[in-house]
Amino acid sequence: MYDVIIIGAGVTGSAIARELSKWQLRIAVLEKASDVCEGTSKANSGIVHGGFDAKPGSLKAKFNVLGNKMMEKLSQDLEFPFKRNGSLVLTFDEEGKDRLEELKKQGEENGVEGLCILNREQLKQLEPHISDEAKAALCAPTGGIVCPFHLTMALAENAAENGVEFFLNTKVENLVKTENGYKIETDKGSYETKTVVNAAGVYADVIHNMVSGKKMKIVARKGEYCLMDKEAGNYVSHTIFQLPGVYGKGVLVTPTVHGNLLAGPTAEDIEDKEGIDTTAQGMETLLAKGGKSVENLPTRQIITSFAGLRAHMADFGGEEDDDFVIGEAEDAPGFFDAAGIESPGLSSAPAIGEYVAEWIAARLSAKEKPDFKEKRKGMPNMAEADEEERKRLIAEDPAFANVICRCELVTEGEILAAIRRTLGATTLDGIKRRTRAGMGRCQAGFCSPKTVEILAEELGKDIGEITKTGGESRLLTGMNKA
What we know:
Blueprint: E1 2-7, H1 11-20, E2 27-30, E3 47-48, H2 59-78, E4 82-83, E5 87-91, H3 95-110, E6 116-119, H4 120-126, E7 136-140, E8 144-146, H5 148-161, E9 165-167, E10 172-177, E11 182-186, E12 189-198, H6 204-208, E13 216-228, E14 239-242, E15 252-255, E16 261-264, E17 268-270, H7 280-293, E18 302-316, E19 325-328, E20 335-339, H8 345-363, H9 387-396, E21 403-405, E22 410-411, H10 412-420, H11 428-435, H12 448-459
Parallel strand pairs: 1-2, 1-12, 2-9, 5-14, 12-20
Antiparallel strand pairs: 3-8, 4-8, 5-7, 6-7, 10-11, 11-12, 13-16, 13-17, 13-18, 15-16, 19-20, 21-22
Helix pairs in contact: 1-5, 1-8, 2-8, 10-11, 10-12
C-alpha cells in the first residue's frame, strides 16, 4: 500500500514527486515510457515564461509567476542549466502597441516585475537582427530559458534519491476505487494507494475519466520546431515572441541554454495523441512566421526538426476550460488532477509540485522528513568544464578522455555516468538527453554505433536489443542472437 502514486513522469509529475519526497510518505511514480521526460515534456520551447500573458486570477498566471521565481534556486540546488535571458513580444503595426500596453498591465497585475515597452530604436539596439517590420515590443527581463530534459531528470533523480520509487515501462490500464483508496491496474500488475496524482499529460483525460463522472477531454495540440546549429546560437539573445493569438504565443525565435537557435512552434489540434510527425507545410509555416520576427533567419543552419504535443483542455464538465485543472476531483476523494498542463506548464511545474504536495501531505497528516536531500549532483560535462575539472575527471577515469560525440564533445566517461546514475539511461535517446551525444551538427551520424556498444555492454544486453526510445524501436534488425 502506497500513500501516493503519481501517474506520469514528465516535468509536472516529477516536480510533484520531488516535493512529496520531503514528507514521510511511501510514494511511487508509474510511467508507460522507458524513461522520464518521454511525453509532452521532451519536446517544447524550453522557455521559462515571465507570466504576463496569462489571465489574471487564473492558475496559469499564479503558478507561472511563482514557478519563474523558484527556477533560479532550483537550478542551483539540482544543477541543471537555466539562464534569465529576458523575452520580447513584438508588434508589427501601430494598433498592436495598445495590446502591448494591455499585456504590460496584465503582467503587472499578475506580479511580473520589470516590464517595459520598447520603441523601434531601443528594440534594434537590443537585437540587431530584429525584423524591420517590428514597430515596438514588450520587454520582460524575468523571462528565461532552461533545458526541459535536464530540469525533468533533475527533479526525478532527486525524488528517487529521497526514496520515491519509479516504475518505468508500466502502463496504467484501469483505476478502481477501494475502501482504502485506489487499486491501479497496469500491464505489469496492480498497485494499491491511498491517493492518486494524475499527471499523465495528453492522456490525463483518459486517467481522470476512469474515476470521475465529470468528464474531461484533452486535445493534443501539435507544435513543430526547427533547431539551428550553434553557429547561429548568438543570432538573437532574447526569446522573441509575437503578440499572442487564439492558439497561444505563436512562433518564437530563441537561443537555447546549450547554444543553439530554436524556432517554433506551430499549433495544430490533432486527434492522435502520439502524432509527433513533422511536415513540409509545418516547416514552411514556422519559418515564414519566424522570419517575420527576425530578418534573414539563418535557415541554412538548420540541423533538425521535431514536433511536440501540448495537453490542451478542450472540455471539462461540458465547458471549455482554458486553464490548468489542479486539485482533488469533486466525486473521487483522494484523486488529484494536474491536467491540461500546456504552456506555461514547464515554467509552472515547480510551483505546481509544491502546491499539490502540500495539499496531499496535509490530507494524509504527513510529517516532514528530517533527512531530505535538497541538493543533487548534476551530470559531468567535459564541453563546459574548465581545465582543472577536466584533469580531475580524467584522473578519476580515463574514459573521460575518449571522445565519442565530436559535435558536442561528449566522452565515454559521460555516457557511462549517464547509464550508471540514479534513473540512468537505458536507450539511445536517454543518452542523448542526458549528455547531448547525438544532438550536434551530424545528428548522431557518427557517435550512435559506439554509444549503442557502450549501452549494450553496460546493461548486459545483446547489441540488437538496444533501442532508440524503448519498446520496439530497435536500432538493429536481422541480428543473430548468440
